[in-house]
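Run folding on both entries below.
>entry_1
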Amino acid sequence: MPYRTGSKPLRQIIYKKRGKHGNPPSLATIFFETRTKGGQLEGDNTNKKYNEILEASQSQPELSNIELIEKCFGTQCRQHVVCYGVGVKPTDLKPSYSSRAELNAKLCETQKENQSLRSRMDGMEAELQKN
């Protein structure tokens, strides 16, 4: 599968295809733009992969680009993501998880809620034993 960007960096291609302000273009667009020569995809494997990407994105539009990449190309290695070049890691594209401080705050809140529910339950049990 030939891979071409010529003298343009991948980021420039993504930016020109409306990848501004955290709104990246679709994976199919990136794949097509980085693997064309004279406006045509080269090679049978490239055409098959492009059609596979289009099929997957139309059948499951809720998938993010990284989920679509992993579905069509398999699990990505730590240093490289297909269609994004070297330097972009899979963790850069996956949604970030809550920070430790947010998780601790949520834990404290649920512990307080559990404690109040236990005290209510103990009070109800004590009332039932009196009657």
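>entry_2
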Amino acid sequence: MNASLIIWGLIHSHASSIRAAAYLLENINQCGAYSFTPAEAMKPYMATRIGTRIFSRKTFPPLKKLVLRDIIGHKARSISTIMVTALVLSLGLSFALSMDSYVEGIKYRFDENELWDIKISFDTFQDNSTIDMLNNLQGIEKVEPYVGYGAEISYRNKSIIIQLNELIKDSEMHDFSLAEGKINYSDRLISGDATHRLDLSIGDRVTLFTPYGIYEKKYQGYSMSLVPLRDNIFKNLNSSTGALLKVEKMKRKAVESSFQNLSFIRSWVEKEELESGWLNLMREYHAMVYAMDMVTLTLVMLVIGLFSFISVMEREREFVILKSMGFSNYEVVRNNFWETLLFSSTGVLFGIPIGMYLAPLFNATFENLISPPPVVLNPNIVIIRCILVIGVSLVVASFTISFALKRNIAEKVRRVFETM
């Protein structure tokens, strides 16, 4: 009797133990704590994003799932990366494109608008007989007289000193590019600089105070002149203070040698020399702006690098989990490489037009000094700046990930699981 009771008690206690173990196991399974392997722990984490849930039924490797999740699920981070890249790049581009537009504008104005080869100045007023004599010199194709002198231009209660040129009406040495209006040889052309300083509008009548009298002329339009505050009047000239010469090819040296025998010629300058002087002047004038551009470029690189570092460190536990799942450092870095390249390239595409929009605003600050040229999209500047921005993003992100994966992975995995 006692033996049967003992046996029955053992069987009952054993069955109770089995039921308790089964109940405990069922509760553990429901809590999801039956497995602490990185692969199993990764599943609920990766399934919390929209991008991965969309593709959850397809057999994507964990690396590709992370890429899809970051592109589609992490909308805020993706948009912020693109916006920061675009805005920072556009700031640097606006400085560089603005400076380059002045240099290209000067080259264009000399090559397209100034059609003469040599400009000579007389020591005294010369009549048309001097122009005829110059026309007869060997190697000269065309001669046009001009009269240049200083004058004061006045409008309402404002006045400025200008350099005034009187040109012949059928000039073939100049091709004026008017920003407004069209050429009317009975009126006059005024530079954009004088227009800005006097606040003129088309049709306004201005007063000219010259050494040869006082004149009143209608403002017809402003030209994209090279020399600040240089204006032009078209006349039938009977006397001149200088001439513009068109010279045959390979005859320039011979023509300049013949000038030494003409006593009435005070000086002369070649178009290339004048262009070079203007380019050097603009480079010196923009020395401060170039320095600002270099500072801006340095700040752009620092901001891009810092943003890449912060963006990578926010995702450190993702890289730790991938490392613990058996992926190599190269595979993890490669995954982030393509993602960073995609976001940086998209930001660059938005940054270029923003920079093109900001550059003219920067040029407008120099309107009272020189007529600002249109902004030219220089491919060399754009390509170099874009490569620097994308390159810094990729290098900083890759080094940050590599450094993070070299630390104590076991300790980091434990911390990841504690926070999940």
